[in-house]
Amino acid sequence: MSRTTDIFLTALAPAVWGSTYLVTTEALPDGYPITLAALRALPAGLLLLALTRCLPHRAWLGRVFLLGAFNFAVFWVLLFIAAYRLPGGVAATLGALQAMMVIFMAHGWLGTPIRIAAVGAAATGVLGVALLLVTPEAALDPVGIAAGLGGAASMAAGTVLSRKWQPPVSALSFTAWQLTAGGLILVPVALIFEPPLPVLSATNVAGLLWLGLIGAAATYALWFRGIARLEPSAVSMLGMMSPLTAVVLGWVFLGQGLSLTQLIGSTLVIGSVLIGQRVNRKDNLGSNIWRSSTVESV
């Protein structure tokens, strides 16, 4: 399968994640972020476990729960905190810093060289997201900023470690393990800190099914598949497609306008993603060779 196909399939994941804001605001009850995150992760993980019939070996349990925390539990909780305490544009811009963090984490943990062009592409992407989403009236909250940066760091660590720790199973099984682990971590947190959910309507159930089956099970399988095949920095750049999709969906379904500044931001985001794929392609072959020689020892 060509690299272009791998990039396209991996990019589908953040493109679908861009629908999360629309589905959350229009189809889910407000005020239950941790509970909804648990309901998004755990049922999807258990369903994939039933389909794959593949459980992690005891030696992998620690890594699986750490990855489940980074990629789902910690990331989603901090993401919701940032979303509640910051304007959506500010939270998304902080999240876009994940691509920059991955470059340096991959250098430290995988030995991937730091390329100036890759750093420049990531910085351009962050600027594009800021132009796309941040308004002059955006208020800054220290707790929200800390949560946004922490969420970006959590997802960045999960992305790099998911590449470093590649079990000899399919991407679907690896996704099932992490979703289940993340859901198991979230359940007690939700029970402690949030009240019980009200009776769910048909719209609520449909929203949860979309976020769980499509927005978690299917898309994260594509995401982890991409992490196994592409250089981590290239994968993280694709994450910038999420806020772009969110803006397009808001324009199509909610009648939200698109300003000239947002169109410039969209162009910068798309350009940075394309440049990021081109620059990071140079590292992919060497990274694959490195992983092949070390995966058995980590």
Indicate the topology:
Layout: H1 3-17, H2 20-27, H3 33-52, H4 61-85, H5 88-96, H6 98-110, H7 116-133, H8 142-164, H9 171-193, H10 202-229, H11 232-238, H12 241-253, H13 260-294
Helix pairs in contact: 1-10, 1-12, 2-10, 3-4, 3-9, 3-10, 4-5, 4-8, 4-9, 5-7, 5-8, 6-8, 6-11, 7-13, 9-10, 11-13
Subcellular location: Membrane
Keywords: Membrane, Transmembrane, Transmembrane helix
Organism: Ruegeria arenilitoris
In short:
The protein has one domain (3-294). 80% of the residues lie in helices and 0% in strands. The protein contains 13 helices and no strands.
* Gyration radius from CA atoms, angstroms: 18 Å
Strand content: under 5%
Instruction: Report the principal-axis shape.
Output: globular
- Structural class, by secondary structure, is mainly alpha
Task: Output the helix-strand order.
Answer: HHHHHHHHHHHHH
Number of domain modules? 1
Number of helices: 13
The helix content is over 70%
Largest sheet: number of strands, sense, barrel closure = none
N/C terminus separation = 27 Å
Total E-strand runs: 0
Average pLDDT level: 89
Quaternary: single chain
Uncertain runs are: 285-298
